[in-house]
Amino acid sequence: MSELLHLNTAAARARIPDIARAAGVSTATVDRVLNGRDGVRAVTAQRVLQAAAQLGYLLNSSTPAAPPAKSMRIAFLLPAGTNRYLHMLGDYIDFAHDQWTALEMKCRVHYVESFNPNELADRLLHYGQRADGVVFMALEHPIVRDAVNTLADRGVPAITLISDLSNAKRLAYVGIDNRSAGRTAALLLGRFMGPRPSGKIAMLAGSLNYRGHEEREIGFLHLIESTFPQVRVIGLREGHDDSERNYRQTRKLLEQHPDLAGIYNSGGGSDGVARAIVEARAEQKILFVGHGLTPDTRALLIDGTMDALITQTPQAMVGNCLRIFRNVREGRDAMNDVKPVQFTIVLRENLP
Questions:
Q1: For residue 86, what are the CA distances in angstroms to 50, 63, 137, 170, 313?
Q2: Domain 2-54, CATH class in plain words
Q3: According to CATH, what is the number of the domain 72-175?
Q4: What is the pTM of this model?
Q5: Contact at 8 Å (CB) between 236 and 264?
Q6: Cα gap 245→114, rounded to integer Å
Q7: Is 29 helix (H, G, I), strand (E, B) or coil?
Q8: According to CATH, what is the number of the domain 178-311?
Q9: How many Å apart are CA 206 and CA 217, to the nearest integer?
Q10: Nearest to 289 by CA among 261, 312, 252, 253
Q11: Per residue in 238-261, pLDDT tens?
Q12: pLDDT tens digits, residue range 204-226?
């Protein structure tokens, strides 16, 4: 009899704030669920109803078990071209369709003309009208910044991927610390060189219109200057992540500097750099450090043409993007439980 009295008393005292605390949601969410209003994910609604039942809260008979779930529509905008790592990233998003559906996310990949800020801004606004969120690799340009700010004003959050955008209303940046990556590449090349008679190294970038590539350059040059003062960086070339263009750039570098000791490619198209290195047949091996683990760079590590590369997994980046969008949808801080993306140094002997 005393147990029954205790339960009845608890039920009488159960209030919406009590249910909100038990379910880990806001009181507004509890109110929406208990009154059968839309706008709450099915799993969240179920958690609220379970908490209410455990607390003995008497539900109205008209309260639905759970409102129908509505998937978030996420548009990924990636640069078109021959960058194999970016195509691998896009393939991963497409192939994992069932996984995203289970998370109530509908992810679509769209390829945008590379290195064209006007086209990127236009596509951001276009796909932003059809999506609940946009993820894109940012070009540092005012027109791109304006497009992102316009989306933010419309309530469409945008996440920058791999390369960030300054002074814009983007929701978050997902990617590695690019300045740290550049410093790491410089440290690897400097250590690998040892007491070589020639201290010349060259750097290739996709495009300095990408803030990420610019940050890699800054980090690379700063560490070379501070740690390896005997090493001379002979110049920077932009290869636009294109294998053929990188091949021509590297051939020209090796013709002008036959004593070149090493090359750092901070963008894509490393197979073009490798082809030029192999054709040069230098008396002393040309050191080569690049980015992005793909089937072609794996082969270059195995045959010894490439000495090391810096990479980040597509799974970590895409997972962080979707976690951020879910946090926003469920009323949490955008970066709640989102861990920074870390890069890995890959050598022939530790190939995953």
A1: 43, 47, 10, 21, 11
A2: mainly alpha
A3: 3.40.50.2300
A4: 0.79
A5: no
A6: 14
A7: helix
A8: 3.40.50.2300
A9: 11
A10: 261
A11: 999 999 999 999 999 999 999 999
A12: 999 989 999 999 999 999 999 99
